[in-house]
Design brief:
The protein is 23% helix and 35% strand. Helix 1 crosses helix 2. It is built from two helices and five strands. Strands 1-2-3-5-4 form a five-stranded mixed β-sheet. Strand 2 and strand 3 form a beta hairpin. The chain is elongated, with a radius of gyration of 17 Å. By secondary structure, the protein is α+β, with helices and mostly antiparallel strands.
Length: 159
């Protein structure tokens, strides 16, 4: 076990904290694509959803572990035909806000020192899923540094 690395759960928890701290976001979710649709979940919009995808893993040369995700920021129009444009604009800002929170964190937060979030692309989602949601999905990577060697190998009981 490489103890020097930030755990996967810690990474997901930090995304959840960022979404929960955002004044516009109502719900955060994490999991497979089948859990993204609000019809199968108890979801209030605007919704931020983190989906893990194939990751490069650990790079021996750089000593960096990279995790890859799709980060969804979605909302559902209320009534007007012009609202989807407003939703697209707001949800893009939510993605950027979460990126800023993740990379720099609140002023009193020292946890962000070990994180580096990078956006590789953002893709519009128009009338997506059964909810007719609008917004964006960002392809992102999270890099963390740590120790990957035998010195940290656990012995005895592992909890």
């Amino acid at each position: 076990m490489a103890y020097g690395f930030i755990t996967y759960k810690t990474v997901v928890d930090y995304f959840e904290a960022a979404a929960n701290a955002h004044q516009y976001v109502q719900t955060f979710g994490h999991g497979g694509i089948d859990q993204l649709d609000a019809k199968s979940q108890n979801v209030a919009y605007p919704y931020v959803f983190l989906r893990p995808i194939t990751s490069p893993g650990y790079n021996e040369d750089t000593r960096i572990r990279t995790l890859a995700f799709e980060l969804y920021a979605l909302d559902v129009p209320k009534l007007s035909n012009t609202e989807p444009l407003d939703i697209m604009s707001r949800m893009e800002m939510v993605l950027l806000d979460i990126g800023g929170y993740f990379n720099w964190g609140p002023p009193s937060d020292n946890q962000t020192e070990g994180f580096d979030l990078t956006f590789s692309s953002i893709i519009p989602t128009l009338e997506a899923f059964n909810d007719r949601a609008y917004g964006w999905v960002a392809n992102i990577t999270v890099d963390t540094k740590g120790t990957y060697d035998y010195c940290d190998y656990p012995s005895g009981s592992y909890v």
